[in-house]
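User: Please go through the entry that follows and flag anything odd:
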Amino acid sequence: MTKEIKHSTAHPDERTLELFALRSDLLSDRREEVAIHVKECAGCSALVSEIGEYYAEASRLQSAQQYESAHALYAPDRSIRPRWYSQTADVAPRPASVPQRVARSLRTYPGRWSSGALALIAAAVLLLPAVFKGDDNLAYVRAKDEFIVAYNASGTELWRRHIGEGYDVKNSPNWVGWRPERGLTTCDVDADGRPEVVAVFGWTNLKNPTYKLDNRVLCLNGDGTEKWHYDVHRTVRIGGIEFPDNFKNLFLLAGDFDRDGDFDILVGATHEPWYPFVIVRLRGSDGSFVSEYWHNGATPYVVREDLDGDGLEELLFAGQNNRLGKACLLVLDPRSIEGSGPTPKGFELEGALPGKEKFYLLFPQTDLIARASDITNRAFNINVRANGQIEMIVMEPLDDHRAEVYYYLERDMKCVRVGVSDHFAAVHQRLEREGVLKRPIDSKYLEEVRTGIKYWDGSRFVKRAVPVQHPDKTAQK
């Protein structure tokens, strides 16, 4: 006859659970009863697991002592990835080292340890802090495997914070992939000598994020706790049409750009799906709003460069102007992030003053527009070359080729040279053979592209390299 096992609702005492974890014969008559309870009780199950881990740890330590010197016993493995993270975006610290866990066991279960083991572990707990004094100073961060991961200068992981599926710099667009600090960076935002973490998330398509992040600017303290956050919420009207509150933060810039002693965070946010685009200036110490600049099209490629030698770095933003149908480059004084950029009459941002650009350039579409798949060409990158020239790379809107045009600008924005990529040349020659295009790429062709650049003078676009004046905000095509 099968013996009936009765299940008691009372929790077994700690000694009983200890004997159960050790599979002791002293518990042979109650083992099945305790097993049923442990299976159904999450608390007792967790305690049994913890007891088993402690005993396994003690056994390993005592065995290793016979063969290794004391300093080799307790080398913590800090490269192990934590096995859990909080679904509420709490910071997951690095795993406790072996000596830390054993010390905790000594405090919690002192009766378990033999006198010999107690002496061994007590000596280890006293000696190891001096031997393995960790570096808990934040040095850099990475967007990796759904997490913000923080490291010290030697590459040891300090903590990680869960963001969501898809959060990884490997999945980023070019403006973040080439410059990861545009999406996630460390900087001392409050001048206290300790770095903070600043991040934006709209550059990636997050799946199941912990909370809404597309429009959030997040600043974390060096230990991973939140310092402040700012959400980009805007409802605007352009040409009589209301654009609802639906923005994504594409990139960030961090620095004391205007050299006033206060750290700034600049965030580029685009309305979904097309435009407008806004550059928001925040005070780094607390995330409070300072000013903003509006533009009819995203300008996610950015460089900082002192163009006029006055010691203040100008901010060069490259992208596209959807309403004017051209790739564009705008140069802003970091002290004047305000107003709105040039746009055709009837498409002004209601209530906005004219922008304070230093320069504003439009780049022509080439004859490849005959095979274009979009209404506008767009910037693909911007660089400052070793000779000081600005390299502006414009992509023609073709689906099957990376047809790039390279513009080389002096620091006064005058274009001195134009070139094309091999892809551009290849597709152009194919279309010539097919009879779609009638002229080859020669010096005359490139000169016409070069002189096709237009400059906003404050009231209209002209063909000479001039800085912007600001009498009117309406652009004439």
Notes: DSSP finds nine helices and 27 strands in the chain. The longest helix spans residues 42-65.
